[in-house]
Amino acid sequence: MSRAPLLTRALVLEAPQTVPDGAGGFATEWTPLGTHWAEIRAGAARERLTALGPSGQVTLRITVRAAPQGSDRRPRPDQRFREGARIFTILAVAEADAQGRYLICTAREEVPA
Description:
mainly beta
């Protein structure tokens, strides 16, 4: 990372929790773990042909301050970020710099059906 990221967007880190749905099954609820100041940049894009025609997908690079391994504040691939109504599913997490000051979370924005 050649420059310090501009951490100007407040994203809420959420973790999934399985809870009874009242009908004998289970549902997923999302529990907030805290707010991270982040920079969001477009990553790789791809197009694929689906039954409904061409469909595009863009991955995002979300940069946040690092947290130690094992910390609840360190994002993981089974979690997501929320910014208002926008949801970003975390696909992978890697250190952004040799000093371990920042993390890059590769994510996909979920579009409500």
